[in-house]
Amino acid sequence: xxxxxxxxxxxxxxxxxxxxxxxxxxxxxxxxxxxxxxxxxxxxxxxxxxxxxxxxxxxxxxxxxxxxxxxxxxxxxxxxxxxxxxxxxxxxxxxxxxxxxxxxxxxxxxxxxxxxxxxxxxxxxxxxxxxxxxxxxxxxxxxxxxxxxxxxxxxxxxxxxxxxxxxxxxxxxxxxxxxxxxxxxxxxxxxxxxxxxxxxxxxxxxxxxxxxxxxxxxxxxxxxxxxxxxxxxxxxxxx
Length: 239
Fold this sequence. Notes:
Elements: E1 2-3, H1 4-10, H2 16-24, E2 28-30, E3 33-35, E4 41-42, E5 48-50, E6 53-54, E7 62-67, E8 96-97, E9 105-112, H3 115-122, E10 130-137, H4 142-150, E11 152-154, E12 157-159, E13 163-170, E14 175-182, H5 189-196, E15 201-209, E16 212-213, E17 222-224, H6 227-238
Parallel strand pairs: 9-15
Antiparallel strand pairs: 1-4, 2-3, 2-5, 5-6, 7-9, 7-17, 8-9, 10-14, 10-15, 11-12, 13-14, 15-16
């Protein structure tokens, strides 16, 4: 038995908090009866409707996906561009990406049908490390990168401190490879932080999320997460 709001969130209808609002507003039915009590528990046998539309209570599934460049981190796109779920055609569950990677950014992306899991990992207060590798224009000086480790303001936004490492530099091409570890998930964050210190990003890849790496996956490939990996991610978010 699970709390009703958790089941609604798990189905990807809304966040846990929004699900509670839907219940309080009388927009949820269980077995044909409108419920407004937040503490009610339901089982897989119960028929749940939100705004008179039945929801499917699916078993939770979790995947690690190597997102290629030129793919939208979404389940649909009004411009007809390729989206993440195009790579999961054989998966019957209604899955969606956890957070997002930019269209031109490749790398590790989590995909699930568990709304509570997705919400916990993407909530700003849960500091789960994410490691990116960026090819930048210019040869960085150590002093130039120090603001990254202190946190910085850029275009009116405050970014939390990040850890960085210069992996290589090409003086002939006037470019460098920088590894950046952040725990926030702001829009275009890595690109903007590096732009703020005068290093425009030419190419970007997310290589690690919490304790997870891409391993042997190639662009466009995915694998299911093991139960232990899911538990470790949730523990990282909790701590």
